[in-house]
Write a structure and sequence with these properties.
β1, α1 and β2 form a beta-alpha-beta unit. The chain is flat and about 95 Å long. The protein folds into 2 domains: 89 residues, P-loop containing nucleotide triphosphate hydrolases (Rossmann fold); 175 residues, Helical scaffold and wing domains of SecA, CATH 1.10.3060.10. By secondary structure, it is mainly α. The protein has a two-stranded parallel sheet.
Length: 356
């Protein structure tokens, strides 16, 4: 006999519980006790059933046994199952969107690891960053009535870590001319750094920086995609397809990811400090005086009877004499102190206590 205190969202779970009651040919019996305040009833069938019970004059706490209630519960379970099936059905379609983005990013990483990284976007990236800065000070794209050359020069210098002076631009009134001049300054400064570092080393530095920025940005993008996948499901209440909303928002996030990777790579390489020239200092090493060195082994003196050999060295230091140990006393031998007791009962016991 199985007694259930609530109905599960899935009818499969309820049927499994019913199957527990039948063993070895015994049909068994099951009985479920529910409340209109259970999650399943409260979400799907609480208001309608409560209104029906009030019209029938049912009192609170009174047991309700009716096929109508059973059908309402099964209908609610069916709706939950359909909703869960729909969410599982879209899991693969959601993953296809991520898989397409993953292939693009991993292809770039593979090229970097195979020494095929292409940093040709450096000039275009610098131009895009400079355009974003200049647009804030241009009368054509902002509310300013005239160019603020001093503020623009200061912000460009802070962004690229390169001294940029707008007074060096020939035609200051054309946005295209100013943008091209600033891009040439940045490109020239980076080429000078490349010349000082060397093509082989700068290639490894570019690959390392590019790879690190891709990995960090991709991890942040994965977290943003997880948040997006959880949030777009709520748009289904607004009669919008969550999958289509997810694809559209994911495309926008991926576009911003690729732009951010290129911009951060450009700034990291342009801001790279130039290598400092190492100053070679001649170290004067004092050569030892060979005249004071003696490469010979002194012969050991032959000891004579009654004469204690001199243990001092050439420099007056005493040589270390070996430690001489007398004959070892056994545990059951008489104690050397003359007490007549065994060594283990006399001084042997005292030495054992001291060692403990």
């Amino acid at each position: 006999y199985v007694i259930g205190t609530e109905r599960h969202e899935s009818r499969r779970i309820d049927n499994q519980l019913r199957g527990r009651s039948g063993r070895q040919g015994d049909n068994g019996r099951t009985k479920f006790y529910l409340s209109l305040e259970d999650d399943l009833m409260r979400i799907f069938a609480s208001d309608r059933l409560s209104a029906i019970m009030q019209r029938l004059g049912m009192k609170e706490g009174e047991a309700i046994v009716s096929p109508m209630v059973s059908r309402a519960i099964e209908k609610a379970q069916r709706r939950v199952e359909e909703q869960n099936f729909s969410s599982r059905k879209h899991v693969l379609e959601y993953d296809d969107v991520m898989n397409q983005q993953r292939q693009v990013v991993y292809t770039r990483r593979r090229k970097i690891l195979e020494d095929k990284a292409d940093i040709a976007f450096l000039r275009d990236g610098a131009k895009s960053i400079a355009e974003g800065i200049l647009s804030k000070f241009s009368p054509e794209t902002s509310t300013n009535t005239s160019w603020d050359y001093e503020a623009a020069s200061k912000e460009l210098t802070t962004e690229f870590h390169i001294p940029i002076n707008m007074n060096d631009v020939a035609d200051k009134h054309s946005m295209e001319t100013i943008l091209e001049s600033v891009t040439n300054m940045v490109d020239k400064a980076y080429k000078e750094k490349r010349a000082k570092v060397g093509d082989e080393l700068i290639g490894r530095i570019e690959a390392y920086v590019y790879l690190q920025i891709i990995d960090q940005s991709w991890k942040e993008h994965l977290r943003a995609m997880d948040t997006l996948q959880d949030s777009v499901r709520l748009r289904g209440y607004g009669q919008r397809d969550p999958l289509q909303e997810y694809k559209r928002e994911a495309f926008k996030l991926f576009e911003s990811l690729m732009i951010r990777i290129e911009d951060e790579t450009v700034l990291a390489l342009v801001r790279m400090p130039p290598p400092e020239e190492e100053k070679e200092e001649l170290l004067e090493v004092a050569e030892p005086e060979t005249s004071k060195l003696v490469f010979a082994h002194p012969e050991a003196p032959v000891p004579q009877a009654g004469i204690v050999p001199d243990t001092s060295t050439e420099y007056g230091e005493a040589r270390a004499e070996p430690i001489r140990v007398g004959e070892k006393v056994g545990r059951n031998d008489p104690c050397p102190c003359g007490s007549g007791q065994k060594y283990k009962k006399c001084h042997g016991r005292l030495e054992g206590e001291d060692s403990v």
